[in-house]
Amino acid sequence: MGRKKPSKPTQAPAPQNQTLTIEEALGRAYAHWNAGQAPQAEMLCQRVLAVWPGQADALHLLGVMAHAFGNHDLAIQHLRQACTTPRAPGLYFSNLAEMCRQKGLLEEAEQAAQRATTLSPDLVGAWNNLGIILQEMGQYEEGAACLERVTALEPHNAEAHNNLANTWFRMGRLDRARTHYDQALSLHPNYAEAHSNLAHLLHDLGRYDEAAASARRAIDINPQLVDAYLNRAEVDLTRQDHAGALRWLDALLGFAPRHPAALSARAKALKMDGRLDEALMAAEAAVAGAPHSANAHNTLGEVRQRLGRIEEALASFEKAASLPGTEREAAQANRGSLLMEIGRKDEALAVFDQLVETNPRCVSGWISRAEMKKFAAGDPDIARMEALLASEGGASFNDRMALHFALGKAYLDHGDSARAFRHLDEGNRMKRGTFAFDVAATAQWMEGIATSFTPAVLKKFTKAGDPSDMPVFVVGMPR
Hints:
Layout lengths: L21 H13 L3 H14 L4 H13 L3 H12 L6 H14 L2 H14 L4 H13 L3 H14 L4 H13 L3 H14 L4 H13 L3 H14 L4 H13 L3 H14 L4 H13 L3 H14 L4 H13 L3 H13 L5 H14 L3 H14 L4 H10 L7 H10 L7 H17 L3 H16 L6 H14 L2 H5 L20
């Protein structure tokens, strides 16, 4: 958060009969805060407000202090009041925007950031905040334009390169994202946030060992960087190591016990591990802590779906899809998949149609449409999926794998076996790389079973079974 020396106010009586003017009291308050002496800074601000209620500079500093100590609601309350004053500077609106963004109040955050850039067109931090907010609202092109402006104004600003990389990443331009992450790290090798974000990118590229190493590097640099723990846990979840993911998430919750994203991630890990009651508790806690978070509502919907609470799951997905943020698309896809699962196919198809119409790069929309339809030769959807697979900048590893499987199904539908095989073979090759499987070790394990369960051992259990002579129908896994 930025700090600004207060502008000179109209002279008013000194606080509580001291000889300090308002300006002097505020100057000392900022000096105390910068020296790490928060109690003295707060005392001076409160004395100023006792004499001059609503004094913007005192409210701003109280807001910055409240934010630093994790009291986001109080921080926003102070900044909102500071920004109501007629001559509040752009910095105050910029800080309010960032605080609202962190709280999930994206629409208010955007309004404040737009006001900040209008009042202070040369305030780099305001453009940076606006770019991040627009990115999180899914307005990627606009966000990228703001952040490009920041990197042009300050080409050696590692944070600006990192933020611009995040936007390109979300736009599916993984090549440009990697360039700017690398630029950020060349400027600032111990930039924990950039290492963490690079870990997320490497994960999406299927380079899991490198992703785990980057996330761990970020944690070593900053042991309280929330996103680094989330990204490290994501690698373990992809590898089906639920216990490993939960260890990272429990470490995160040890110092941030109510962090909504951490609770949502823990709910997903518990769901994948089959611990559905615990997953529900974590997901509900995430929503309670961040009622405006699309991610929290989407996660709650996923857990409710696994529990068979269909109508509640649909309601959660609808709520998530109505909120601003990057999770809206995932929530719509989840809603469409659930509608398809319960037989409401027309509604599901409408959801997927809307997804690909709104965002032609939405892989989940194309994949789900492919599952629901039978393709004929020359179907334009095939060409669109082929184009998406070959698109500039590169899709994520999981998206490319899913597109190969969808195209394999599409070509099989209209009898082009050669193309179908090529796509299915590539999809399977990619999938095979996501988990470890040792043929020799598995053969040894099977031999061990055969050696252990000899006829003599099995004979001991001859009378242990159910004496019924009713036939047993044995089936394999659903195909």
